[in-house]
Every structure is written in structure tokens, then in C-alpha cells.
Amino acid sequence: GECENKVDLIFDNGLLMDMLFKKVGGADELPMKKQKEAREFIEVYHMQIVEKWKEFFVLHIKPRNERITKL
């Protein structure tokens, strides 16, 4: 089946403090191994993720796509 999670990024004074993985609708949650991979990815790219979120939702600018081939 389909696996999906929503991840809330928790910041304090600009520092990433935690990530909360939450269940989405009727989808199964990501297996723990995939959650670990997602956590590692977010730890490396969290500032770029937040920047693109701000561009899209706050500034209403379509962010440029990036291809990421490795952590």
C-alpha cells in the first residue's frame, strides 16, 4: 500500500530542534527505516526546505526545482 507521513519541523531561535512524524489520512505510516532516511535528509536540507516553503506560501513565488542525488 501507499505510505505517507507529514513532518512538522520544530525550530527554536532558528535551530532545528525536533521533527514530528504524523499519520496522513488513510495512508500507512512510513516504515521506521524510511522515517530514519527522511530524518537524515531533513537534517541536511532543512534550511533549503524552509526557504522553498517561504517562497511558495509567503512570497507566492514558484521555487526552482532541484535534483538531489546524495546526502
Describe the structure.
There is one protein chain. The chain has 71 residues and is α+β, with helices and mostly antiparallel strands. Helices cover 38% and strands 24% of the residues. It has one helix and two strands, in the order ββα. It has one helix spanning 32-58; strands spanning 5-12, 15-23. Strands 1-2 form a two-stranded antiparallel sheet. Strand 1 and strand 2 (15-23) form a beta hairpin. It is globular and about 35 Å long. The two termini are 27 Å apart.
| Percentage of residues in DSSP E strands | 15-25%
Global morphology? globular
Number of extended strands: 2
Query: How many angstroms separate the termini?
Result: 27 Å
- Order of secondary-structure elements: EEH
State the secondary-structure class.
alpha+beta
Query: What level of helicity do the residues show?
Result: 25-40%
What descriptors fit this protein?
single chain, 71 residues, alpha+beta, two-stranded antiparallel ribbon, 1 helix
Describe the secondary structure blueprint for this structure.
Elements (H helix, E strand, L loop, with lengths): L4 E8 L2 E9 L8 H27 L13
Antiparallel strand pairs: 1-2
Short description:
Helices cover 38% and strands 24% of the residues. It has 71 residues and is of the alpha+beta class.
